[in-house]
């Protein structure tokens, strides 16, 4: 039996198909067009059906998702018109195939959780990309919350009355820790004559005064948030994913040192292993586990 996993993101959509042994037999990445997200996804599933028998569909979507109904409870203006979209209903009506829908970061967390070599019960996943996403797995379950907002760490207030966020609040964590923040600070604070095309690595490798300040703030702000997570959730493992982690070999030791100096709790900090396919793989795993496919 084949399970289709889809990671429906704000900039790209990733499709993978897992066979009954969890081997990836198909994978593809396409650009996301905000105004045609649903229509494009339906079209791509139709095309895949011509080549592969599909028995289950798992979809990870940005926004707060009600996994019981498969509906988008809330999405920011980054995905205009996405709030209220009934993803599960539309897909099942179109294809008569069981579908499971979950938040995209929850899918990423579930993928990493399922693939951990040592079994654990409690884990937090943070994705540091364009923004900052989060997910909590507690006693083997994805925590969703009464308004499907558990793990929305990107909108945890780090600095009261700080930078404005597109959620309408001020001082949200993702306004200080994200790929967008690093990019903006690099291009505004590092002299133009020193810019390189590989700016993410250049920030952490070429430690001029401007870069040292960016790195120091990044480590401090990421560390403060992680210590807050330690003291509220006390996870066994915190997994870091997202595009910024491609440079983690340059900054992870600094982060671990900061946490060791400022926290009396010992938590394993590790980098995600499944890369950009994590969300789609996790969506497929969830479809298998929640919809009864072994």
From TrEMBL:
Superkingdom of origin organism: Bacteria
A Pfam family per the record: ROK
InterPro entries assigned to the protein according to its UniProt record, in alphabetical order: ATPase_NBD, ROK, ROK_cs
Family classification: Belongs to the ROK (NagC/XylR) family.
Alphabetized PANTHER family for the sequence: BIFUNCTIONAL UDP-N-ACETYLGLUCOSAMINE 2-EPIMERASE_N-ACETYLMANNOSAMINE KINASE, ROK (REPRESSOR, ORF, KINASE) FAMILY
Species whose genome carries this gene: Vagococcus lutrae
Protein name, UniProt field: ROK family protein
